[in-house]
Amino acid sequence: MKVVTIVIQVGILLELLLSCTSQPQPNLRVETFEMDFVNSSQFEVKGQLLKKEIPGLQSIIVYDSILIALTTNPNAQLQVFSTNTMEEIGSFCKKGRASNEFFNVFSVTNQIYERSGHIILPLIDNMNDVKEVDITESLRNKKTIIGKKDVCLGAGLGYSFYLDNTIGDSRFELLNNRFDGVEVTDVPCKYIIKGPGKRENELKIFNRLVEVDDKSEILCPFESTVIKHPTKNLFVNAFGCMDYLIFFDIENDRIFAIHQEGAPTFDDKFQNKCSDLFFNGGCATETFIFLTYCHSKKTLADEKNGKKVQDILIFDWNGSFVKGIKLDKRLRSIGFDEKKGRLYGMTPKEELYEYDLSTLLP
Fold this sequence. Notes:
The chain has about 350 residues and is mainly beta. It is about 5% helix and about 40% strand. It contains 2 helices and 27 strands.
């Protein structure tokens, strides 16, 4: 009887071990903190119209006390405004094929930095080359001054940031899971740190793709944007169809995520639609990250067309939720002047608005 009992107990133990090992590992491989940031926006701020229209306006970047507008205007694809007066103080990047001209201008990352006291903006020309536009020298000489050049990551492949704000081999890259530009692989998006001599270190963030009902939406759970700290090698990855932010501290080798408590996870079947945007853009300062967020149940509607507008959710670089603010306009691109406490945003109608947040921030 003892032998039979032991055999039965061993069998039960083996069955328990097999059942445990058959459970899939969590998809997200980094430490995740649950918090509540959805429906937490308590302040409403109305925007002030600054510019009725900037023809061909595509996006804006704010740095120090200047606002840079990237446009499709062939004579001024880059326009610089002072945030003190909102007067134009320079226009550059004329359309053309000369060394200091651009066939078109584009910035996937909105990365902008200072070098030797000069404000430098790397722009993509014709989806092929990266050219540094020296904003400081361009304003001084009243013509486009180009600095270093590089080859850009292919169109639609993902995000590529220069580490230490210096053009070169050292980069932080997020590659979409459409690696050849057409076919979807069975591997989630890749996060890669590149160093001198073509050294690469892939950061293992996800174990697998997310289960979906509609195969056409296999990419949706991983659609995201990346925002860099102005001076440090800090990044936040904000997801367009999931309530997740992933923080990367490259210098201190720390990666963690924050997640809206109670919201679907990367282990659940994806049942949203790609049109149901969560985080869809943002900007950052030394202290704060400003993210446009579209999935709050209490978000206001645009008074002109009734369409849902974004909240601005503000986090610090430690991943703490600071504040949520309700806006009154739909914004496609935003920037923040840290000195004045002003948020700037462009609407789909190429209007430019200003929001005074100076009394709302810590």
